[in-house]
Design brief:
The structure is a single chain. By secondary structure, this protein is an alpha+beta fold. The protein folds into two domains: 11-160, Rossmann fold, CATH 3.40.50; 165-263, no CATH class. Helix content is 22%, strand content 30%. The chain is built from seven helices and 16 strands. The strands form three sheets. A seven-stranded mixed beta sheet has the order 3-2-1-4-5-7-6, with helices on both faces. Strands 13-8-9-14-15-16 form a six-stranded antiparallel beta sheet, with no helix packed on it. It has a three-stranded antiparallel beta sheet with strand order 10-11-12, covered by helices on one side. The longest helix has 14 residues, at 18-31.
Length: 267
């Protein structure tokens, strides 16, 4: 499963500005922190500021779009072009996150040790809510950049026993045909159970799940099971847009994009 990126972002939207990196690096210096992992580094301003102004700090800047860092010559910093859905993160004193919620964020969190420090900038309006679930807030730093929240937050990560919400998040990061089975009802068909791909889905802090295949939003309370795909070929066809819902019970049905329901031959 590979990462998706926003290649048309403006420089200001993509990058945390120099002033905010200076604020964070001053915080690190006061706390005796020496290394920073910048997940999705953009143009690697983090590494540029460290190279020019903070010789005692080392930044591991990982970025999926190589052109964003191609012209940089930063001999004391660690720049890497890679897909963080495929490559392990760098183990550093502080991990910097300016990411939307979803499988990439979950994969990064799964690799952090207990009590790891995180510096987070709100990306799409729900990153802080997600981190509030699994971290304790240490402090905040006022930002110069215009973001969803005017403060950068420093968190301490807490590894916990996985519940259903965390289990779904962990499974969403891997390529698979695993299916969520969801209870539903309508006036014509009454109660039924349909299946949606767990790969790539997002579990919001509110308990709402958003699947990619099919594109649906529903409560985690409606999930009744996680199972292997009963009809793998239909699941793959649905990812190509040929089907919408796959209904598993009480009658096995496949739903066309126009809403027509056709009985599945189970023989």
């Amino acid at each position: 499963m590979q990462s998706q990126t926003y290649e048309d972002l403006s420089f200001e939207a993509l990058n945390t500005p120099l002033e905010d990196w200076r604020e964070l690096f001053n915080f690190m210096t006061k706390k005796g922190l020496k290394t920073l992992f910048d997940a999705g580094a953009g143009n690697a301003l983090s590494a540029q500021v460290a190279q020019a102004e903070f010789p005692d700090l080392s930044v591991h800047a990982y970025e999926i779009v190589g052109d964003r860092m191609a012209a940089l010559d930063l001999p004391n910093q660690q720049l890497k072009v890679c897909d963080l859905m495929l490559e392990p993160i760098a183990k550093c004193d502080l991990t910097f996150l300016y990411l939307p919620t979803g499988p990439l964020l979950e994969r990064i969190l799964l690799q952090l040790p207990h009590h790891a420090l995180i510096a987070a900038v709100e990306s799409h309006g729900d990153l802080f809510d997600r981190l509030d679930e699994c971290c304790e807030l240490v402090t905040t730093i006022k930002m110069h950049a215009k973001r969803h929240n005017p403060f950068m937050r420093i968190y301490r990560y807490k590894v916990s026993t996985p519940d259903l919400r965390q289990k779904i998040r962990e499974l969403s990061t891997s390529e698979s045909l695993l299916q969520l089975e969801i209870k539903d009802s309508d006036l014509i068909n009454g109660e039924y159970i349909w299946s949606g791909d767990i790969q790539g889905c997002i579990v919001e802090s509110s308990g709402i799940i958003e699947t990619l295949w099919p594109a649906r939003r529903f409560s985690i309370n409606d999930v009744v099971a996680i199972n292997k795909a009963k009809w793998p070929e239909l699941v793959l066809q649905r990812r190509q847009g040929l089907w919408r819902k796959i209904i598993v019970s009480p009658v096995a049905l496949k739903e066309t994009p126009q809403g027509e329901r056709i009985k599945i031959n189970e023989n």
